[in-house]
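Quick one, probably user error.
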């Protein structure tokens, strides 16, 4: 096992939806905040759409953990069922005895339960995972569950989580009533390459890794490419790469180990490669052209670029072109000096960097105090040793630090102040507020 070899306390790339390992990418933070706000305001129906392996189940568990003790919840996984079985599963998960009764009796028991919970001041939330597997009839039953309501509030909150097929299903005309009742729709998109690097580093830190550079830069690039930014595939590649590294006694995971891990997992895109009955392979035009382009590039590189004669000729040609250009510019500048308006340094800098925001008139970028403040307190600067968290009901800074760092003392408090310069009062956190928390072992 590679845990001892790489000095890890636990498995950093497991397959179970452990909320501690949920990496809060911008998309995850937005989805979590949207779902939390929907439950808080009693919106009734909410949905979460994500490709397989994007961590939607882990996100739901995180949401469930933050509401623990304040809501009565049911988590339904059995979506290959009929309407009667769905209601029975729901009653059983809520702790009610259905006894195989007819669906009318089960609806009556559920209605009584919801009124009792509402009088006691507790919300009831139902999470339905893999909801794309529900038939249209069962989805209509789910819609009818939202009819349990009081004059001033919904008695039942329902979160439908599923793959993109769920979104396509809801777009059907026959499910228009259900679609119209969904008050909030959230999506989880694949992680871009820079977020993949932060994801890997975050999970290693949570697992107790205290070193640096366990994966080389090239290895991380290959992980981002091979996984297509899907967390489950990132976990599989990293787990296999660490296993191979341990077997080969390599202290650092390089590109070759990642390539071997990807090959072992046979992570080919089935849409790109189709096998015929004769065992031949048909590839798309873009894929078949790739070897030709690569060989052409290698020929140019080896036959031309690396030849000193070509380099000398290219440099001479470059200098000649520059001399002609400078001469032409100086001549035209003399003729047009009377009516020409020379650009100032500010407009020239703006043209060189079209993405950068324009600086205030009369001030350079280096003199802009707002820009300096943003660069000094950019959360991305501390992403390797912290993660963003959305404050939930009854959260305290002490409890959050104990659950993430394992302690709450002056050192941790000092680091939190550094990560959150806008945090004025650590003893008072507002629900929905985003703060940055240190991960275990950062200092």
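Nope, works fine. Designed sequence:
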């Amino acid at each position: 096992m590679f845990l001892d070899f790489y000095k890890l306390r636990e498995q950093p790339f497991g397959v179970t939806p452990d909320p501690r390992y949920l990496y809060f990418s911008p998309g995850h933070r937005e989805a979590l905040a949207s779902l939390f706000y929907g439950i808080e305001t009693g919106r009734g129906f909410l949905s979460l759409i994500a490709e397989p392996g994007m961590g939607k189940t882990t996100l739901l568990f995180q949401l469930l953990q933050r509401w623990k003790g304040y809501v009565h919840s049911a988590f339904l996984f059995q979506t290959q069922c009929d309407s009667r079985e769905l209601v029975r599963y729901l009653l059983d998960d809520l702790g009610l005895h259905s006894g195989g009764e007819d669906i009318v009796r089960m609806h009556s028991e559920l209605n009584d339960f919801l009124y009792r919970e509402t009088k006691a001041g507790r919300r009831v939330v139902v999470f339905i995972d893999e909801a794309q597997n529900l038939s249209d009839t069962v989805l209509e039953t789910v819609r009818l569950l939202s009819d349990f309501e009081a004059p001033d509030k919904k008695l039942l909150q329902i979160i439908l989580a599923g793959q993109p097929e769920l979104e396509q299903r809801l777009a059907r005309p026959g499910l228009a009533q259900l679609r119209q009742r969904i008050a909030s729709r959230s999506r989880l998109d694949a992680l871009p390459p820079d977020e993949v690097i932060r994801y890997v580093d975050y999970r290693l830190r949570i697992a107790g890794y205290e070193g640096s550079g366990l994966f080389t830069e090239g290895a991380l690039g290959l992980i981002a490419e091979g996984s297509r930014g899907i967390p489950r595939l990132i976990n599989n590649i990293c787990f296999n790469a660490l296993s191979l590294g341990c077997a080969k006694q390599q202290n650092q995971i390089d590109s070759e180990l990642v390539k071997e891990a990807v090959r072992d997992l046979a992570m080919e895109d089935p849409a790109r490669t189709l096998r015929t009955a004769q065992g031949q392979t048909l590839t798309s035009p873009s894929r078949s052209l790739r070897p030709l382009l690569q060989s052409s590039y290698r020929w140019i590189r080896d036959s031309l670029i690396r030849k000193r004669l070509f380099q000398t000729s290219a440099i001479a040609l470059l200098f000649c072109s520059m001399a002609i250009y400078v001469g032409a510019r100086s001549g035209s500048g003399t003729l047009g000096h009377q009516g020409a308006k020379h650009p100032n340094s500010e407009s020239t800098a703006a043209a060189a960097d079209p993405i950068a925001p324009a600086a205030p008139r009369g001030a350079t970028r280096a003199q802009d105090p707002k820009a300096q403040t943003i660069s000094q307190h950019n959360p991305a600067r501390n992403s390797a040793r912290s993660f963003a968290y959305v404050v939930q009901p009854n959260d305290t800074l002490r409890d959050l630090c104990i659950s993430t760092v394992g302690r709450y003392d002056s050192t941790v408090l000092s680091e939190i102040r550094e990560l959150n310069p806008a945090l004025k009062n650590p003893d008072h956190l507002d629900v929905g507020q985003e703060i940055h928390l240190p991960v275990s072992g950062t200092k």
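The CA atoms of residues 262 and 370 lie 45 Å apart.
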